[in-house]
Amino acid sequence: MARVALLSNPRSTGNRSLLPRVRSFCAENKDIFHYEVEHVDQIGQALKTIARVKPKVLVINGGDGTVQAALTEIYRGGHFGTDVPPVAVLPNGKTNLIALDLGATGDPIEALKRVLELARTDMEPHIVSRELIELSGGRAGGKPVLGMFLGGAGLADVILYCRNRIYPLGLPNGVSHVLAAIAGILSIIIGIKAAFLPPRPRLMKVSYRKQGQLQGRFALLMVTTLERLLLGGELRGSSPDNSGALKMMVIERSPRALWRAMLDTARGRLSRSGDGLHIERGDEIRIEGDHSSVILDGELFEAEHDRPIVLKPTAPVPFLRLAA
After folding, report:
1. Total count of domains within the chain
2. 3-state secondary structure of 302
3. Does one domain contain both 140 and 103?
4. Is residue 145 part of a domain?
5. Considering Cα of 188, then 190, then 193, then 198, what sign does the dihedral take?
6. Quick check: 131 and 225 in contact, CB under 8 A?
7. Residues 27 and 105 in one domain
């Protein structure tokens, strides 16, 4: 029985330089069972093999697409039966939101050392439960996919702008994200189309709970089950019972709404709706629009008027939190 099973995708951008160090570390620690895949289509077979060694922890080492495919297969594949090991994610992608939420930051090898350290002890105090987002519908079709962070409206446009226009420049990830954010803010403040700025968001309708509905061009749509968010703050929502596993934030496309969100973020009070900022919670969210883009953990989907994207939470999945 291996204490730790490590699933790596050598083709992810971060692993081009990291993987030799990972292989060396695994060779020195026999408690780690290391399985490498060349494509996300191989993840199902990888997890089937990993389940046979019955690891105490399953670690995912890859980009956003690898993490999403692994989470989908873990939840849908049934390889582990009812004894699913807690999942840890190494900080190795472009955004690392899931790793950040679980306290995995900095050097991926140091995070892996921390996982191995915890696996040699009673891990119970470090195991947390998180629901996943189940996405169905849209133009992608096929079976539902699972993830933990969805960005849409202007946020999706900025992510695609960063991916297609800024990442090719070869700048550090942090610098690329800042430049993309500045470009997104300028596009709202200036309010005009420009080749050097992200495109204007498409019209979108977002439905939540039984009667809640928002419609328009939004600067940001965010749906997540994570606790620690990119913008900080706790998304409590405005419903009286504050219920629902899906946490949603929508910012209208106006300088006033954007300024309100930025000010509340700086004050650590990003939890109240008003002035173009909408914060809600629910157990089903529907997104409709004419080729409106959303990105779930790095994978692009599009909603259409007759084929909306539907988001629902799954049952809780165990994860390993690395922070104390």
Report:
1. 2
2. strand
3. no
4. yes
5. negative
6. yes
7. yes
- Cα separation, 144 vs 310, in Å, equals 10
Range of the domain at 26: 4-121
- Relative to beta strand 87-89, strand 292-296 is unpaired
In this structure, are 71 and 30 located in the same domain?
Answer: yes
Q: Are residues 115 and 137 in the same domain?
A: no
Tell me the pTM: 0.82
| Cross-sheet strand order for the sheet of 145-147 | 145-147, 133-137, 309-313, 285-289, 204-208, 212-216
Contacts of residue 276, defined as CB under 8 A and 6 or more positions apart, other chains included, come to: 251, 252, 254, 256, 257, 258, 260
Residue that finishes a domain, picked among 121, 149, 171: 121
Q: What is the pLDDT of residues 105-137, one digit of tens each?
A: 778 899 899 999 999 988 899 999 889 999 988
Using DSSP, state whether 202 is helix, strand or coil: coil
Residue 318 lies in a domain: no
- Give the amino acid at 81: G
- SS3 category, 120: coil
Give the CATH number of the domain where residue 217 resides: 2.60.200.40
The Cα 285–Cα 295 span in angstroms is 15
Q: What is the pLDDT of residues 76-112, one digit of tens each?
A: 888 888 888 999 988 876 556 788 788 777 788 998 9
Q: At what angle do helices 173-190 and 154-161 cross, to 10 degrees?
A: 130
Return the H-helix or E-strand segment holding 76: helix 64-77
**Sign of the torsion angle spanned by Cα atoms 313, 205, 297, 154:** negative
How many Å is the maximal CA-CA distance in the chain? 60
Contact 48, 75 (CB under 8 A): no
